[in-house]
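In response to reviewer comment 3 from the previous cycle, which asked for concrete evidence that the modeling workflow produces usable outputs, we include below a single protein chain processed end to end. The sequence was submitted unchanged, and the resulting structure tokens are shown without manual editing.
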Amino acid sequence: MSVTPGKTKFKVWRENVDETLETKAKHSESVTTTLLASGWAGIDAPYTYELEVEGLGAEQNGKIGVAQSATFEERQMAREAQLCLVGQENGKLYVAADGEMPDIDIPVTIVLLD
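The workflow returned the following structure tokens.
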């Protein structure tokens, strides 16, 4: 590793790391939406919800969680519902409620990775 005048080995190393991460790091996009109480299907658990997510690919990585803006009541409902992802295709996520069927809307945030 050659060092230019005025640069320490650490600065050169850090610049190399930053350049490498810029080409390797996954970019993400955050989408906030709502699981509407009226959108659940099923008579018994697990209840299902088909959530449209613009830009979602069938094999794309990401995650979903209760939005930071959720109230205590919304977070409590999400816990009682025992929400989990059960499927994915282009433009859609499938969510299941293995516990109670949500009777209030639950705000969620989806992070999509490139």
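Helices lie at 9-24, 72-81. We consider this sufficient to address the reviewer's concern, and the full set will be provided in the supplementary archive.
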